[in-house]
Specification:
The chain is of the alpha/beta class. Helix content is about 40%, strand content about 15%. It binds cobalamin and iron/sulfur cluster (SF4). Cobalamin binds near residues 17, 68, 123 and 247.
Length: about 450
């Protein structure tokens, strides 16, 4: 079979990221098949590039990867659905080969996207087992019904109920096929991606990560992880930074410590960043991470209100966030906390409380996001309903945006735009750029706790 692997993602903020998931899928395809990857990230005219590839390669199957539903800034004003609909139209115009969709974005709402985009098949979640099984079934014209996580329209009309999947054993998976990665990810962005495990055991209310990866942490052997780290960095001067793509690096904590110990033992020096959670963070881990060249941690702190944290089922308190910050600070690891403002049920006062909490916490950096639900991309009425509070939040953020000159507020373009990032990269800064903004910023200006300011009272 001839298999076209298409990576639809064109987002380059905050970094252009290799299509790691599709590279894993590619490595799992049986060797007797011929496949080709078309990555649309750097294509100037993606539709033309897609049509030309299909005409030349003449595939028997087209596998289309959808990483993101939302755009990078979570503004609620832009999503990728129409773009993917257009890609499918081009594919349909060029070939009769069946279209299979998958990827993190697709997995967040597979049934809705099947109905909207009408690919022939969709695979939600991990695809290393399901995709090769689908290829075999299509080739041998056998039944699909036992293929895990496969979505299709039975009899062309009704949506199938996919067979439940057991999650894959990370120890038995082939490494992602990076020979297919466009070199510009490295030469222009300098960043690599590495996965040490899949799964997150927590149950934060809004979070889609466990839908994609499951709740059981399936870890890779630390030696295997570090072997891969050596492979992607040794002799590759363009790789200046590695992002550990685990949903949470420090859960389970013991595994994170073992990975750090292995990096230290092997004497690697490449800086890396990961997601860290206040649960499962301690002084020993902070110390090991610093010794293993961790250049920063990104923390989904989400709120400075205990009530909101409880409603979001974060499982930690504001005190846990403070403790993580202190431990990271003592170990010399910069921490960047993401806060979601205006989540369902949140009052404007909760939003103000969160802003005050950030002022008190004074983390190395903060990213402030006005809440956008992924389902808004498919439901204009829901988007409209949420827009009023979002606009109020964005106005508030706009008013306070100059106080901490290094905070990022993606939805209003504060410290989050392509030209700023280009300048930083040209000056030799790599990795998540929040790590450099603070050192380059003039400092805190006119800082005030919002709830004690007169404007805050008039707003309530
Ligand atoms: C790490 C990460 C980041 C890092 C990436 C760093 C790096 N160097 O790679 C950073 C912080 C930069 C980032 C940024 C963004 N991210 Co992000 N990110 C993640 C995270 C945690 C892991 C992604 C990953 O690499 N996974 C590992 C790979 C191996 O898994 P995978 O891609 O899912 O692939 C598997 C399956 O999906 C499937 N599959 C994949 N492709 C295909 C294709 C086909 C045809 C098939 C059949 C199957 C298939 O098989 C693969 C192997 O099992 C996910 C959440 C999660 N836990 O999945 C969010 C996630 C992908 N990000 C998301 C978003 C929105 C973004 C941003 C747009 C916004 C933001 N600020 O977060 C930007 C966009 C960046 C870009 N250039 O595209 C969303 C996307 C869905 C959505 N809601 O729109 C996710 C799902 C999180 C969420 N909010 O729900 N991200
Ligand atoms: S800790 Fe992070 S990945 Fe895990 S459920 Fe909560 S938000 Fe999702």
């Amino acid at each position: 079979m001839r298999i076209s692997l298409i990576s639809g993602n064109r987002e380059r903020l905050p970094d252009a990221v290799i299509p790691l998931g599709l590279l894993y899928v590619s490595a799992s395809i049986q060797k007797e098949h011929t496949s080709q990857l078309l990555d649309l990230c750097f294509e100037e005219r993606p539709m033309e590039a897609l049509a030309a590839h299909l005409a030349e390669f003449a595939p028997d199957i087209v596998a289309l990867g959808m990483r993101n539903i939302q755009n990078a800034d979570y503004s609620g004003f832009s999503n990728t659905i129409d773009y993917y609909a257009q890609l499918i139209e081009v594919i349909r115009g060029a070939t009769t080969a069946p279209v299979v969709m998958g990827g993190a974005g697709f997995s967040v709402m597979p049934e809705e996207l099947m109905r909207r985009l009408r690919p022939d098949y969709g695979i939600s979640g991990e695809a290393e087992m399901a995709f090769p099984a689908l290829i075999s079934a299509l080739e041998q014209k056998t039944s699909f019904s036992a293929i895990p996580n496969l979505h299709y329209f039975a009899g062309g009309k009704e949506m199938s109920t996919p067979s439940p999947a057991g999650f894959l054993d990370m120890g038995s998976l082939p490494r992602p096929d990076r020979t297919l990665a466009d070199p510009r990810y490295y030469t222009e962005y300098g960043i690599e991606s590495l996965q040490t495990k899949r799964g997150c055991p927590l149950r934060c209310d809004y979070c889609t990560y466990p839908i994609i990866e499951g709740r059981v942490g399936r870890t890779r052997s630390p030696v295997d992880v570090v072997d891969e780290l050596v492979e992607i960095t040794a002799g590759h001067p363009d790789v200046r930074h590695v992002f550990v793509v685990d949903s949470v690096f420090n859960l389970p904590r013991a595994h994170a410590k073992e990975v750090c110990r292995e990096i230290i033992k092997r004497g690697l020096t490449v800086p890396w960043t990961c997601y860290a959670n206040p649960l499962g963070f301690d002084a020993e881990l902070a110390h090991l991470m610093a010794q293993a060249n961790c250049a920063g941690i990104e923390v989904g702190a989400d709120s400075g209100s205990e009530e909101v944290l409880k409603r979001l089922r974060k499982g930690f308190t504001t005190q846990d966030i403070r403790t993580l910050h202190q431990l990271a600070d003592r170990a010399g690891i910069p921490d960047c906390h993401t806060f979601l403002l205006g989540t369902p049920g949140e009052s404007f006062d909760d939003v103000l409380q969160t802003l005050d909490f950030i002022v008190d916490l004074d983390p190395f950096s903060a990213i402030l996001m006005a809440w956008v639900d992924d389902y808004e991309a498919l439901d204009p009425a829901l988007a409209k309903e949420r827009q009023a509070l979002r606009e109020q939040v964005l106005k508030l953020l706009d008013e306070h945006s100059t106080e901490f000159s290094w905070w990022s507020i993606p939805s209003i373009g504060v410290n989050y735009d392509a030209s700023l990032f280009d300048v930083l990269r040209k000056r030799g800064h790599h990795g998540p750029l929040w790590q450099h903004l603070r050192n380059l910023s003039p400092g805190k200006t006119n800082v005030r706790r919002v709830r004690s300011s007169p404007e805050a009272h008039s707003r309530k």
